[in-house]
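Recall that a protein's primary structure is simply its ordered list of amino acids. Everything else, from secondary elements to tertiary packing, is in principle encoded there. The following example makes that idea concrete.
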Amino acid sequence: MFYLKSKKDMETSAIFLLIFIALSYFVMINVIYYLAPTVKHNEFPKKRFGKNNCTRIAENPNRGKNMEPIITKLSENEIQGKLKNIINNMRKIKIINERKGFIHFIQITSFFRFYDDIFIKIFQHNGKTNVWFQSQSRLGLYDFQANEKRVEYIHTELKKLI
Protein backbone atom coordinates (compact mmCIF):
# COMPACT_ATOMS: atom_id res chain seq x y z
CA MET A 1 0.00 0.00 0.00
CA PHE A 2 1.35 3.39 -0.97
CA TYR A 3 0.97 6.58 0.92
CA LEU A 4 0.70 9.43 -1.54
CA LYS A 5 1.50 12.83 -0.14
CA SER A 6 -0.62 15.73 -1.13
CA LYS A 7 0.92 18.56 -3.12
CA LYS A 8 0.86 20.76 -0.02
CA ASP A 9 2.71 18.10 2.04
CA MET A 10 5.35 17.81 -0.66
CA GLU A 11 5.83 21.59 -0.80
CA THR A 12 6.16 21.75 2.98
CA SER A 13 8.70 18.91 2.94
CA ALA A 14 10.69 20.67 0.22
CA ILE A 15 10.71 23.91 2.21
CA PHE A 16 11.91 22.13 5.36
CA LEU A 17 14.60 20.36 3.34
CA LEU A 18 15.84 23.66 1.89
CA ILE A 19 15.89 25.26 5.34
CA PHE A 20 17.84 22.27 6.70
CA ILE A 21 20.38 22.49 3.87
CA ALA A 22 20.80 26.26 4.33
CA LEU A 23 21.28 25.93 8.09
CA SER A 24 23.74 23.05 7.63
CA TYR A 25 25.75 25.12 5.15
CA PHE A 26 25.77 28.10 7.53
CA VAL A 27 26.96 25.92 10.42
CA MET A 28 29.65 24.28 8.24
CA ILE A 29 30.99 27.66 7.06
CA ASN A 30 31.21 28.93 10.63
CA VAL A 31 32.91 25.75 11.86
CA ILE A 32 35.53 26.13 9.10
CA TYR A 33 36.05 29.78 10.05
CA TYR A 34 36.50 29.04 13.77
CA LEU A 35 38.72 25.96 13.27
CA ALA A 36 41.22 27.99 11.25
CA PRO A 37 41.28 31.64 12.31
CA THR A 38 43.39 34.19 10.47
CA VAL A 39 46.77 34.68 12.08
CA LYS A 40 48.96 37.57 10.98
CA HIS A 41 52.38 36.29 9.88
CA ASN A 42 55.39 38.60 9.85
CA GLU A 43 57.78 36.49 7.82
CA PHE A 44 57.92 33.91 5.05
CA PRO A 45 57.47 30.34 6.38
CA LYS A 46 60.69 28.44 6.98
CA LYS A 47 59.19 25.22 5.60
CA ARG A 48 56.16 23.95 3.73
CA PHE A 49 52.88 23.45 5.56
CA GLY A 50 51.91 20.07 4.13
CA LYS A 51 52.74 17.82 1.21
CA ASN A 52 49.40 17.73 -0.62
CA ASN A 53 47.96 21.11 0.34
CA CYS A 54 50.92 23.45 -0.08
CA THR A 55 52.80 24.77 -3.09
CA ARG A 56 56.19 26.30 -2.34
CA ILE A 57 58.54 27.94 -4.84
CA ALA A 58 61.51 28.68 -2.59
CA GLU A 59 64.19 26.74 -0.81
CA ASN A 60 62.79 23.30 0.06
CA PRO A 61 60.22 23.50 -2.77
CA ASN A 62 56.99 21.52 -2.86
CA ARG A 63 54.99 20.85 -6.02
CA GLY A 64 55.19 23.90 -8.34
CA LYS A 65 55.65 22.04 -11.61
CA ASN A 66 58.26 23.74 -13.81
CA MET A 67 58.36 26.86 -11.62
CA GLU A 68 61.48 28.33 -10.11
CA PRO A 69 61.89 31.35 -7.85
CA ILE A 70 61.86 34.51 -9.94
CA ILE A 71 65.16 36.36 -10.23
CA THR A 72 65.22 39.80 -11.83
CA LYS A 73 67.21 43.03 -12.10
CA LEU A 74 64.18 45.10 -11.05
CA SER A 75 64.23 46.59 -7.55
CA GLU A 76 62.40 45.08 -4.60
CA ASN A 77 60.00 48.04 -4.56
CA GLU A 78 59.19 47.66 -8.26
CA ILE A 79 58.50 43.94 -7.86
CA GLN A 80 56.41 44.49 -4.74
CA GLY A 81 54.31 47.11 -6.57
CA LYS A 82 53.74 44.75 -9.50
CA LEU A 83 52.80 41.92 -7.14
CA LYS A 84 50.31 44.11 -5.27
CA ASN A 85 48.61 44.95 -8.56
CA ILE A 86 48.38 41.26 -9.45
CA ILE A 87 47.03 40.37 -5.99
CA ASN A 88 44.49 43.21 -5.97
CA ASN A 89 43.06 41.92 -9.27
CA MET A 90 42.44 38.45 -7.82
CA ARG A 91 39.04 37.43 -6.47
CA LYS A 92 38.15 37.03 -2.79
CA ILE A 93 41.46 38.20 -1.34
CA LYS A 94 42.44 40.17 1.71
CA ILE A 95 45.96 41.39 2.45
CA ILE A 96 46.74 40.51 6.07
CA ASN A 97 50.26 41.89 6.37
CA GLU A 98 52.56 43.77 4.06
CA ARG A 99 55.94 45.26 4.65
CA LYS A 100 59.03 45.82 2.53
CA GLY A 101 59.97 42.47 1.00
CA PHE A 102 56.98 40.52 2.35
CA ILE A 103 53.29 40.08 1.56
CA HIS A 104 50.87 37.79 3.40
CA PHE A 105 47.33 37.57 2.06
CA ILE A 106 44.43 35.16 2.15
CA GLN A 107 42.12 33.94 -0.55
CA ILE A 108 38.78 32.36 0.27
CA THR A 109 37.58 29.45 -1.87
CA SER A 110 34.19 29.81 -3.48
CA PHE A 111 31.77 27.19 -2.18
CA PHE A 112 33.16 25.86 1.11
CA ARG A 113 34.89 29.16 1.95
CA PHE A 114 38.18 27.60 3.01
CA TYR A 115 40.82 30.16 3.89
CA ASP A 116 44.17 29.71 2.13
CA ASP A 117 47.29 31.65 3.13
CA ILE A 118 49.67 33.01 0.50
CA PHE A 119 53.13 34.30 1.36
CA ILE A 120 55.51 36.16 -0.92
CA LYS A 121 59.10 37.00 -0.04
CA ILE A 122 61.07 39.57 -2.05
CA PHE A 123 64.76 39.96 -1.27
CA GLN A 124 68.16 40.84 -2.71
CA HIS A 125 70.76 38.14 -3.34
CA ASN A 126 73.94 38.61 -5.38
CA GLY A 127 72.71 41.99 -6.62
CA LYS A 128 69.42 40.66 -8.01
CA THR A 129 65.90 40.60 -6.66
CA ASN A 130 64.54 37.14 -5.80
CA VAL A 131 60.86 36.28 -5.33
CA TRP A 132 59.65 33.26 -3.39
CA PHE A 133 56.06 32.02 -3.16
CA GLN A 134 54.11 29.75 -0.82
CA SER A 135 50.37 29.05 -0.90
CA GLN A 136 48.83 26.69 1.63
CA SER A 137 45.48 25.47 2.86
CA ARG A 138 44.71 25.90 6.53
CA LEU A 139 42.52 22.82 6.83
CA GLY A 140 42.40 19.47 5.14
CA LEU A 141 44.83 17.02 3.67
CA TYR A 142 44.37 17.85 -0.02
CA ASP A 143 43.59 21.04 -1.91
CA PHE A 144 42.60 19.77 -5.39
CA GLN A 145 45.59 21.73 -6.77
CA ALA A 146 44.07 25.09 -5.75
CA ASN A 147 47.35 26.29 -4.25
CA GLU A 148 49.31 25.10 -7.27
CA LYS A 149 47.02 27.02 -9.64
CA ARG A 150 47.16 30.14 -7.47
CA VAL A 151 50.97 30.20 -7.35
CA GLU A 152 51.16 29.42 -11.06
CA TYR A 153 48.84 32.35 -11.80
CA ILE A 154 50.83 34.86 -9.71
CA HIS A 155 54.14 33.49 -11.04
CA THR A 156 52.98 33.72 -14.68
CA GLU A 157 51.51 37.20 -14.31
CA LEU A 158 54.67 38.52 -12.66
CA LYS A 159 56.89 37.00 -15.33
CA LYS A 160 54.82 38.83 -17.99
CA LEU A 161 55.60 42.14 -16.27
CA ILE A 162 59.37 41.78 -15.88
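The chain has two domains: 1-35, 41-161. Residues 56 and 62 are 5 Å apart (CA to CA).
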